[in-house]
Amino acid sequence: MSTTGFDYSKVFASNVPQPAARWTGFPRYNFVGGHNDPEAIPLDGLAKAAASALLREGKLLATYGLGQGALGYTGLREFIARKSSSHRGIEATPDDVLVTIGSMQGIDLVNRLLVEPGDTVIVESLSFHGALAKLRKIGATIIGAPLDEHGLRIDALETILRDLKGRGVRPKYIYTIPTIQNPTGSVLPLDRRHGLIALAREYGVPIFEDECYADLVWAGSAPPALYALDPAQVIHIGSFSKSLAPSLRLGFAIAPPDVLGRLVALRSDGPGALEQLVVAEYFTHHFDDHVQRLTIGLRAKLDTLVDALAREFGAAVEFNLPDGGIYLWVRLPEGVDVRRLIKPAAEAGVAFNPGPEWAVDPEAAASSLRLCFALPSHEAIREGIAAFARVSAEQTGIPARSANVAARTVAAQ
Amino acid sequence: MSTTGFDYSKVFASNVPQPAARWTGFPRYNFVGGHNDPEAIPLDGLAKAAASALLREGKLLATYGLGQGALGYTGLREFIARKSSSHRGIEATPDDVLVTIGSMQGIDLVNRLLVEPGDTVIVESLSFHGALAKLRKIGATIIGAPLDEHGLRIDALETILRDLKGRGVRPKYIYTIPTIQNPTGSVLPLDRRHGLIALAREYGVPIFEDECYADLVWAGSAPPALYALDPAQVIHIGSFSKSLAPSLRLGFAIAPPDVLGRLVALRSDGPGALEQLVVAEYFTHHFDDHVQRLTIGLRAKLDTLVDALAREFGAAVEFNLPDGGIYLWVRLPEGVDVRRLIKPAAEAGVAFNPGPEWAVDPEAAASSLRLCFALPSHEAIREGIAAFARVSAEQTGIPARSANVAARTVAAQ
């Protein structure tokens, strides 16, 4: 038999992507993505939870969906319902909860339920890269709704809705991250939440509320979820990626029965049962103390990041302190295009998320970047920001002085 | 604010499904689906594996993909590569392995890579319901390749390939379950494996090999996987659903780099990391003894099922004893349409998989049904088959006598 390779390109479907690049490891100073703090993973607690849950309910693993249907493990849905009530003001039963493969599956399913090519959606002008990428792939028309330091501007949203209505367009949803906005870190005040819901009702547009980060509020609590204020008008999603660990791939959706039952019908698979068992067991006993410990650690890392930026960049960077979460959204002076810094920064071991990827209008965020401070150690944060400042100074002349050393720009060398 | 509900139907995309039915629990005698034996779940072993893996590598959970890239947990890919070599003759490195969300994600991704509406695929005339359903949803033209008691008939396949070539059609793949065929339970002999590969090469058609059940061979070993015989021509998928537990949602794909890298690029999410850690840890130490214990138990349940069928149905049913796995494919006399038995059987607490759902030509399998014997206890198998025989006798007059009691058909009452 011949050992020559078969040419698969002869049978590829149209528009198949190029092969993914081979994995070459994380950069030394990794401010990218939504990773969490490795030191905050409760190793002992999870090991004990795994043992308890397995010995009590492990036989259920032999049946698809633990023999409990398509919504997910009952124990986890019970915890989600309880936590959503106590922490987010949401009145939901376990039957109103769908456990998803991260919150990303929730976004995928809601898009499949509501959004077709050419449909219009309203998204905060700065928003989650993954949500924007999915909508662009679908071919949706994305309208960016302006933000200020407290989140969505209700007056501006009203103008958008009125304008769309005047053109006969009903948007499929308003996608918002009201509680620790991604990337800006703001928490939408209660009066704006009421204003948002009133507008959504007036214009007959559902709200798609993404509360992935809502557990990580510095103040310990935030205004109630939008879903709590109007369950009929809101599809709510959340995640355990930020409150526990992103590699678990566990999220959830809470929605009216008419919606939830269709999200179930649309999906072909759910998350693994062992993770559901273990997370339910651990969080049923340790949610508040774990999240409190995690949040204290994250806030300390934010302090380190802010100090490092002040020391290295001085007045050359601007940011609003986030109300929680794992990101700092940083603006460099106008005229700097952070996309030009990606490669030289990578060569210096520094990775960051360029602002344009987090923006409905990429050019409007050309000078901004998102820094995730959860994964790197305090030392790596300090060293990484110093390295980034050197790269930035070389490439752009900004900062002009870094840690009291004047920049030598590439041009000046 | 009004509390009336929002009418989501105004914003639904076209062709959204009806809401999934609410879960009402398993039937009493459950011969449906691919569930496993609850008594064979290694509770202690998994609990210990969870503790070891978490304490050693749990911090990795803080990073997406355990900080190891998109293929999956390195430890699990190492185990899969080792096991595929020792048990299936496959020479693969961990970088040739993609860990998937069950084998179903493998099927989805391979379809997205290769199959578009109107494309032709060759599938064994009786095959996995899920694979058939996906292909029908895509709108592929499915050609059924005849089977006999040893699996795919190579002569018949050649006729199909020649005929298609004569019409200018190159099928996108030949989907086969060579080792414990689903639903028939056969193992394809080595000479047919070579014949299949020779045909695939001659006609330039990739083989899509599904080895979900290959770990559960009664004889302990089977001929090498097709992938082992010709890695360039075969895309290979497998699963931990049958060798361990279906609710884990862990499977894998092994494929040439050109294919594997594109499967990675096509998917938006992978399986949970905790399950990967735990299964790698457990199976690295206990694969052979676990699978041996599991298989012995399954074979005993098959014996109970075969005894019960003989007692209740006598000569009215036909089947070939499977070479392993969890299914028995049963033929009732021609003229019986098992679809008419679904409802009355359900009323008697008995659920089975109707043959037509496992067939490229549903009508040709109208008298067949698939019984999964892994989940029910020995007692439930006996009682369930007795209950099913009563239903069948009432509805069809077959069996005419059951456990020495003559049937009273519905018509005769």
TrEMBL record, chains A, B:
Transferase among keywords: yes
Subunit structure: Homodimer.
Cofactor(s) the record lists: pyridoxal 5'-phosphate
Keywords: Aminotransferase, Pyridoxal phosphate, Transferase
Domain of life of the source: Bacteria
Biological process per Gene Ontology, one example term: alpha-amino acid metabolic process
Recorded GO MF terms: pyridoxal phosphate binding; transaminase activity
Family of the protein in this entry: Belongs to the class-I pyridoxal-phosphate-dependent aminotransferase family.
Domain Aminotransferase class I/classII large, first and last residues per copy: 71-387
Protein name: Aminotransferase
Organism annotation: Rhodoblastus sphagnicola
Gene3D superfamilies, sorted: Aspartate Aminotransferase, domain 1 (3.90.1150.10), Type I PLP-dependent aspartate aminotransferase-like (Major domain) (3.40.640.10)
